[in-house]
Amino acid sequence: MAVYIIVEVEVHDAAGYEDYKKLTPQSLIAYQGKFIVRGGATETLEGEWKPQRIVVLEFPTKELATQWWSSEEYAPAKEIRQRTASTRMILVEGV
User: Fold this and answer.
1) Do 62 and 93 form a contact (C-beta atoms < 8 A)?
2) Burial of 12 (0-12, 13-18, 19+ CB in 10 A)
3) What number of other Cβ atoms are within 10 A of residue 51's Cβ?
4) What is the per-residue pLDDT for 88?
5) Is 35:55 a contact under the CB 8 Å cutoff?
6) Distance between CA atoms of residues 71 and 24, nearest Å
7) E strand or H helix at 37, and its extent?
8) Confidence band (pLDDT; 50, 70, 90) for 95?
9) Topology (CATH) of 3-93
10) What is the residue extent of each domain of the chain?
């Protein structure tokens, strides 16, 4: 079953975050992850949610998604993201 990692990002250091954006795609390859949404324009339809940036990743399994998140390949990018932005991240199973 496909799973999705959904991330709400508030960037505090735009220049530093650019380095994160360059490193992340390569880290996904071994885990069969791919971007579904990567920072496009958002429009609030209900409620008070006004995210700055939304990212959605798709993986074929939960195991691959969690392995990617804790992988050596992603670690350098993760460190940059955690230093340059505040995030909320969830993993959601698909149908």
Assistant:
1) yes
2) exposed
3) 12
4) 97
5) yes
6) 12
7) strand 34-38
8) confident
9) Alpha-Beta Plaits (3.30.70)
10) 3-93
